[in-house]
Amino acid sequence: LAQLNVLAQSAGKLYFGTATDNPELTNTTYVAQLSNTLDFHQLTAANSMKWDATEPSRGTFTFSGGDAIVAQAQKNNQLIRGHNCVWHNQLPSWVTSGNFNNATLLSIVETHCSTLVSHYKGKIRDWDVINEPFNDDGTFRQSVFFTTTGTSYISTALRAARAADPQAKLYINDFNIEATGAKATAMVNLVKQLQAEGVPIDGIGLQSHFIVGEVPTTLQQSMQNFVNLGLEVAITELDIRMTLPETPALLAQQAKDYTTVIQACKNVQRCVGVTLWDWTDKFSWVPGTFAGQGGACPWDENFAKKPAYNGIVAGW
Ligand code: XIL
Which positions ≥6 away from 161 have C-beta within 8 Å? Predict the structure, then answer.
């Protein structure tokens, strides 16, 4: 069967999957395809496990949104990637404006990661423990976490996650590490430093929010560089956007680009799986974030397959 997860598993991968979000689960047509395990054997919560959703005030945890995504996945025996423990975006203001000192902020990070990962213990295969720690030039992003604790927040979060669910694979996830270069090198160096310090780290997530015609030619090499450190890798947030309107030429190039990404994962043995950052243009984050752009998903706004779907098929 030429369906996305069937083909991914035939290629030795653990899953082909997709992000989804709570409001989308009220659309029965959407949920029917989301539940099609021939295409999707893995789900990621696009928003509802983030810090603002899960610890809106200090020490008060709310898991209802994340729990609904987990329940949806479990109905169909789909794997779940946890997203995420520590990120500079979608933070509640009590974290960003708290003016906490080093020790207090580290304890806040530890409590957040520990409580979040514990809540889902045994239900989540991989956690994006750290999301987007780097600037594009490879320097550390000046988040409240870095400016207050240096890189200590990274080791604190990873150790807390390991203690909370020893079976979960612990990832650092970022964008613009899909090409070799300063940012990917910075990630390699961070992993080496963590490993030297005995900090748990199992995988690197390559978000892969690409632009039609601009998939990096060094994608496979960059993945291999992370694998060479003893880690697994995953394509965690794949979409390939274009300047609207869609044209037959752009859709054809997009299909080729999807093929290129899938082939890179296929060729790297320890690339464990691929996750779309939602599968339909109806619910893609792209138009709301990148003005004038869209069409990034393999299914259109009416849930019809685009050439990109067959591009993925061709890649496996
Ligand atoms: C996006 C969600 O898809 C949007 O709904 C939300 O408004 C903003 O965040 N990198 C990430 C994801 O790691 O968490 C982001 O998700 C997309 C970019």
Answer: 85, 113, 114, 117, 127, 129, 168, 170, 200
Indicate whether this complex's ipTM tops 0.90. Answer: yes
Which residues have CB under 8 Å from 281's CB, separation 6+?
Answer: 294, 295, 296, 297, 299, 300, 301
Structure tokens at 165: 């669910």
Q: How many CB atoms lie within 10 A of CB 12?
A: 10
CB count within 10 Å of CB 228 equals 10
Report, as residue numbers or ranges, the catalytic residues. 237
- Rounded distance between C-alpha atoms, residue 188 and residue 175, angstroms: 14
Q: What is the pLDDT of residue 294?
A: 98
Element (H, E) at 194: helix 182-196
| Alpha-helical runs (H) found in 35-143 | 51-54, 64-75, 93-96, 102-119
Give me the pLDDT at residue 245, please. Answer: 98
Global pTM reads 0.98
Residue 15 has a pLDDT of 98
Beta bridge partners of 205: 173, 234
d(CA 49, CA 53): 6
Whether residue 53 contacts residue 66, with contact meaning beta carbons closer than 8 Å, is answered with yes
pLDDT in the model for residue 112: 99
Probe ligand 1: pick from 18, 47, 177, max atoms within 8 Å of CB?
Answer: 47
pLDDT digits (tens, 9 = 90+) for 38-65: 999 999 999 999 999 999 999 999 999 9
Positions in the chain short of pLDDT 70? none
What does DSSP assign to residue 9? H
Question: How many alpha carbons fall within 13 Å on the CB side of residue 274?
Answer: 33
- pLDDT, residue 230, reads 98
Separation of alpha carbons 146 and 166, rounded Å: 26
Name all residues whose Cβ lies below 6 A of ligand 1.
46-47, 131, 207, 237, 285
